[in-house]
Amino acid sequence: GNTGNGLVAPISTSPNGHFQSQNGHDSNPFPHASHPLLSGGTDLLVQRLDELREQPVRLLFDQSGRRGIRHEAGAGRVVLGAATTASQLLESELMRRLLPRLPDYLKLVSSTPIRNMGTVAGNFVNASPIGDLTIMFLALGASVTLADASGATRTVPLAELYLGYKKLAKAPDEQVTEISFPAPRSDDFFNFEKVSKRTHLDIASVNTAAWLRVENGVITAARLSAGGVGPVPLLLRRTGEYLLGRELNAETVAGANEVMQEEISPIGDVRGTAAYKRLLLRQLLFAHFLRFVPELKLVELI
Ligand SMILES: Cc1cc2nc3c(=O)[nH]c(=O)nc-3n(C[C@H](O)[C@H](O)[C@H](O)COP(=O)(O)OP(=O)(O)OC[C@H]3O[C@@H](n4cnc5c(N)ncnc54)[C@H](O)[C@@H]3O)c2cc1C
Fold first, then answer.
1. Superfamily assignment of 189-301 in CATH?
2. Which of 57, 119, 126, 248 is most buried, most CB within 10 Å of its CB?
3. Cα separation of 269 and 41, whole Å?
4. 28-48: string of b/e by CB count within 10 Å (b at 16+)?
5. Is the CB of 13 under 6 A from ligand 1?
6. 128 C-alpha vs ligand 1 centroid, how far in Å?
């Protein structure tokens, strides 16, 4: 039927991943599995509005089973429904407790009306190399659960979803149902940095997130992500490995920058030259560490 906003949406997907017609009767999933998945539409409707007016879509946004943020204390993981919006992340008590500065980071993402619609899975699957939520969740070590048209599920690390520019290790009929990440400890470090031409309501030139665990003065676990410096949102694995076993000091940061510069491959575009993006990411790496260790001497880094 017509949803009232001009979109024809004769089918929807139930929370268990099976397809239903809108009158609630099961229908054969196969004719519909190729229809586009529409969540908040803040990417898809911008990109393909005319085309989507003409065809059915699989609506995900209003599926109650795709919402909610919970802490699975036993497994030590936080689990979110795929259609969790940026606003729901921002307002979540649980997320604020685990990541106290998350609201500040999320205020750098789009605007209130767009955050009310834009979902976490939509950001992941849109696969922009500068997706802000993707960059945050890469550093959080997120995994995604994918369900195919038959309801079969598999879980993959978010970083393994990205094969090349807008090329995903995901079949078109597969939808993200859940996202999870290991709950950070209160003494872990997490930070997100974004540089854009305009501070608010602008996409990033370069963005990056960092998560570190430090025990007895030594980094014992690390994840660093970066966007706008390659064809996909990057988990900088080698830079993360470099940090292991090292102290949080200027020498470590300088060494990490050298490895990081080898791991990225920015190109020049409207948002700046390749050299500018390399410099930006270096500065943002420094910003992470200055946030973690305010007494680090910036002059020692430059
Ligand atoms: C004005 C404006 C400003 C913006 N600013 C920013 C910004 O600052 N930072 C930023 O990162 N982004 C920004 N965006 C982009 C967008 O808001 C986000 O990427 C958002 O998270 C997309 O989510 P969505 O639910 O709207 O996705 P949709 O548009 O519904 O879908 C995007 C893609 O994901 C697929 N998809 C959605 N959900 C699923 C699922 N569960 N399983 C499988 N596939 C799925 C769709 O088929 C489609 O291919 C902006 C957009 C606008 C219009």
1. CO dehydrogenase flavoprotein, C-terminal domain (3.30.390.50)
2. 119
3. 26
4. ebeebbebebbbbbbbbbeee
5. no
6. 9
Calculate how far, in angstroms, residue 88's C-alpha sits from the geometric centre of ligand 1: 15
Whole-number Å distance between alpha carbons of 35 and 22: 15
In terms of phi and psi (left: phi > 0; alpha: psi -120 to 50; beta: otherwise), the region of 222 is: beta
What ipTM was predicted for this assembly?
0.99
Cα separation, 38 vs 44, in Å, equals: 7
Sheet of 19-21: strand order equals 19-21, 11-13, 58-59, 37-38
Considering only CA atoms, which residue is closest to atom 2 of ligand 1?
A: 110
Give the lowest-confidence range in 60-64, 145-149, 255-259: 60-64
Please state, in angstroms and rounded to a whole number, the distance separating the CA atoms of residues 252 and 128.
Answer: 30
Place 4 in a pLDDT band, splitting at 50, 70 and 90. very low
Are the beta carbons of 42 and 110 closer than 8 angstroms? yes
CATH fold of the domain at 64-182: 3.30.465
Question: What's the pLDDT at 244?
Answer: 98
CA-to-CA separations, 9 to 1, 162, 174, 222, in angstroms, rounded: 6, 29, 18, 44
**60 CB near ligand 1 (under 6 Å):** yes
The H or E element spanning position 293 is: none
Contact 175, 146 (CB under 8 A): yes
Rounded to whole angstroms, the Cα distance separating 162 from 145 reads 15
Measured distance CA(177)–CA(149) in Å, rounded: 12
Q: What distance in Å separates the CA atoms of residue 233 and residue 87, rounded to the nearest whole number?
A: 22
- Please tell me if the CB atom of residue 81 comes closer than 6 angstroms to any atom of ligand 1: no
Which helix (H) or strand (E) segment is 62 a member of? none
Q: Using an 8 Å Cβ cutoff, are 222 and 121 in contact? A: no
